C-alpha cells in the first residue's frame, strides 16, 4: 500500500457518483470531439446537463425509450461517434438488455451509464431499484462493467471509458455517499486497489459500500482482526491477480456489493476462486429479495448491507478458515 | 448516377433471377432458414447493389459509402447472394451459409463478413442502428445515405416505433427505410396475426414521407429512391408491395414458406421454374 491509496473515511465530504460522471463526461467531451451524449429524458437526473450546456450540438434528447436508445447509439458508434447514453439502470441496461447484447456481439463502442442503481435509490421503491444490473451485464462477452466507489472515481472511470474502444457499462448511484478517494488516487480500468492491508480476512467491495467496508475493517481492527480491503471497482474484466492474492494471503473472503448475490460481483469472485483457490467466502448483498421504499441507510441495513452485517460476515468466514 | 435505361432494368431483373437461383441453392445446402422473404426481395437487393448504392465491393470499409442495413436479418440469403454477385466475396462461398465456421452466419454479423455494416436479426434493432448512423452522418456533414430494409412483421416491435419517433422528430432525411410488404409472418398473414394497416398512415403520422411501390418493379423502386433523396425535411419509407416467395410458383403468397427451406425435389422444381420462366419476373 502506498500513501496515495489511503482513503478519507471521515465521511465529511459527500457527493453522488452520478455527479462525478457528469464532470467526467464534460472532460471526455473536451478530450475527444467524437464523444456524444444521449439521454432518455433524465438529463439533470443523470447529470448530463453540464455536457449539454457545453456541447449542445453533441447532446441528443431521446425521450423515454431505452431500446432504441441503445441501438441508435450502436449506429452512431459504427459511424465513428463515442456515445454515452444514460437512463436509470433499471431501464438501461434493464429494459434494453437484448440491444446491449447485440451491440456487444457487433463490437460497437457505446458507453451505457445506468444511474440510480441499488436499493439506496430509496423512496422510489423496488420498481426503480436496479439490483440485478451487474448480473445481466457481466454475463455478456467483452462488456466492461464498472461500479465506482465514489464521485471522484466515477469521474475518472468516465474519462477512462471514453478512451477504451469497446462497450462499457458504468453503474451509478443517486444518493450522496462519502468521497473517499482524491485526484491522486490511482485508477485504471481492470486494476483493483488495496485500500487497507491485513492478513486475516479479505473484504472485496465495489461501489459506495467500500465506505461501509472500510468502517467495518476499522471496527474489526479494534478486536484484533486485521482485514485487507480491496476496491474491486471493475467487475469485468476483473483484476484476477489482486483478488487471487487477497484470497491467498488472507485465506478467507467477504464480498460486499449493493446488488443481488446471484450473479453479482461476489459471484464473479467466487467463480474465480472456485477454479483457482477455493477459500471460505461470505457474501454481503441482497439475498434474493426485491427492495422497497424507505431511506437509503434504512434500506441498506434492512437488506443486510450495513457495517454490522459486514462485521458479522467477516467473523463468520473467520470461523470457517 | 441513377440514369436508368431500359437495358439496365433488364440487366437488374436478370441479376435478380440469378440471385433467386442462388437463394434456392443456398437454402437447400443449409437445410434451414427462410425462403419467402429472400426470394421476394431479390429485385430490390439487385437494384440496391447494381444501381442505387454508392459503394465499392473491393473496399467495403470505404468511409463515404452508402450504408445498407438489413433489419430483417433472417432474409440475409438475399443479401449474401447480391453481395457475392456484386463482387464482395466469391460466389462459391454462398453454399457455406449457416455452416460451422462460415462467414455467412444464420443472421448477419458484421464481425464475420465485411460489408454487412451491422449485426442484425433481433427484429427492430436494424432501423435503430440505421437511424444512429444517419444522425452521425448529418452531424459530420457527410453526404452518404443510410438505407434500411425491414420486414412487415417486424413492424410489430416496439423499438421500431421508438425509432420512428426519433427519426421523425429529428427529420432524418438522409435515412430511407424499405419495407418488404409481403403480408406474411411466421404464424400467418400479418393482418391476422397483428394488423398493421394503415401502415402508410401510421408512418405519416410519425412525420415520415411514405411512397408505395410494386416491389418487383425496378423502375418504380428506383424512382422512389430518387424521390427519397430529393426529400429534405423528413425521412422516407418506401412500402414495397411484394409477393412472398416471388418467382417460385408453389411458394408464392404462402406464409408456410416464411421460415422453412425446400428439400432436394422442391429445390429442383424451383430452379427449373426460375430458369425456364424467367419472363415471369419482369416488371409488372
Gist of the model:
Chain A is α/β, with parallel strands linked by helices. Helices cover 37% and strands 20% of the residues of chain A.
Roughly what percent helix of chain A? Answer: 25-40%
Lateral arrangement of strands in the main beta sheet of chain B: 1-2-3-7-6
CA radius of gyration of chain B is 17 Å
**What is the third-level CATH name, the topology of the largest domain in chain A?**
Rossmann fold
β-strand percent of chain A reads: 15-25%
Largest sheet of chain A: 7 strands, mixed
Protein topology:
The complex is a heterodimer of chains A (321) and B (284).
Chain A: E1 14-16, H1 17-31, E2 35-39, H2 49-54, E3 59-61, H3 66-78, E4 82-88, H4 97-105, E5 111-115, H5 133-138, E6 144-146, H6 151-163, E7 168-171, E8 176-178, E9 193-196, E10 201-205, H7 210-222, E11 227-231, E12 234-236, H8 240-250, E13 253-260, H9 265-276, E14 281-286, H10 296-302, H11 307-319
Parallel strand pairs in A: 2-3, 2-4, 4-5, 5-7, 6-7, 10-11, 10-13, 13-14
Antiparallel strand pairs in A: 1-8, 6-12, 9-11
Helix pairs in contact in A: 1-6, 3-4, 7-11, 8-9
Chain B: H1 6-30, H2 36-40, H3 42-52, E1 67-70, H4 76-86, H5 125-139, E2 146-151, H6 158-169, E3 175-181, E4 184-185, E5 188-189, H7 190-193, H8 199-205, E6 209-214, H9 218-230, E7 236-241, H10 264-276
Parallel strand pairs in B: 1-2, 2-3, 3-7, 6-7
Antiparallel strand pairs in B: 4-5
